[in-house]
Design brief:
This protein has about 260 residues and is of the alpha/beta class. It is built from twelve helices and ten strands. It folds into two domains: about 220 residues, Phosphoenolpyruvate-binding domains (TIM Barrel), CATH 3.20.20; about 45 residues, no CATH class.
Length: about 260
């Protein structure tokens, strides 16, 4: 699984054969310039999800439910998840939290909405967690996470993301669940892995998480291309004669007709 936030990136994910796309509220940092995910709105998620869906044919598209789109009540969650499916075209939604969100998951799945759960580091709770640290390190916290995962499965979640938890704990959760686990910074024992688009491609220009692998340096390539383009324009090397040959036709200005050479 990989995140994507627009039509072009979805096309590329589809062509690469990756089966699951998460339209993550992580767009807050990489696409919208916020410091955390909290400012993302349901309208943001609907617009970006719809763009991703237009770029896909076979990939399974999951949309994040943003902060305060589901925490107030199951009724709010139903209404907002319904928008992500009806207007955005997502096939499923993802929400964060353990046993506290069980009534919401039951309400959503009871209405026929597929739900992916998310445990460990839950970015929408970053302030109450005290930052972006590893979760489940103590025996008590680890037991709570395992119990939460089992409860989420029982409530109807079809998969669970495990973010920033010790590898041994992620392996234990994967062992006890019958639904898939998707890891991000949770070691190699999960059933699948998810990475953020910008981290994966080297587009995170200011910070790359320790658990992320940069499979390309696309950011550097883009910057180099932009610098070369700007230099060619300043020095008159762009556009070339070959690139403008189709524009060399007479220009009718009404009172007189100028050739392109004369007009120049």
């Amino acid at each position: 699984m990989v995140t994507a936030y627009d039509y072009t990136s979805a096309l590329l994910v589809e062509r690469a054969g990756i089966p699951i796309i998460l339209v993550g509220d992580s767009m807050a940092q990489g696409m919208l310039g916020f410091e955390d995910t909290l400012p993302v709105t349901v309208d943001d998620m609907v617009r970006h999800t719809a763009a991703v869906v237009r770029g896909t044919r076979s990939a399974f598209v999951i949309a994040d439910m943003p902060f305060m789109s589901y925490q107030a009540s199951p009724e709010d969650a139903l209404r907002n998840a319904g928008r992500l499916l009806k207007e955005g075209g997502a096939q499923a939604v993802k929400l964060e939290g353990g046993r506290v969100v069980l009534p919401t998951i039951r309400a959503l799945t009871g209405a026929g909405i597929a739900v992916m759960a998310h445990l460990g580091l839950t970015p929408q709770s970053v302030h109450s967690l005290g930052g972006y640290g590893i979760q489940g390190r103590s025996s008590g916290a680890a037991r709570t996470l395992v119990d939460d995962a089992l409860a989420l499965e029982e409530a109807g979640a079809f998969a669970v993301v495990l973010e920033l938890v010790p590898a041994e704990l992620a392996a234990e959760v994967t062992r006890v669940l019958t639904i898939p686990t998707i890891g991000i910074g949770a070691g190699p024992s999960c059933d699948g892995q998810v990475q953020v688009w910008h981290d994966l491609l080297g587009l995170s220009l200011e910070f790359t998480p320790r658990h992320a692998a940069r499979f390309a340096e696309v950011g550097e390539a883009i910057q180099d291309a932009l610098e070369r383009y700007a230099a060619d324009v300043r020095e008159g090397r762009f556009p070339t004669d070959a690139q403008t040959s189709h524009l060399r036709e007479p220009v009718d200005l009404g009172s007189r007709t100028l050739s392109p050479e004369a007009a120049g």
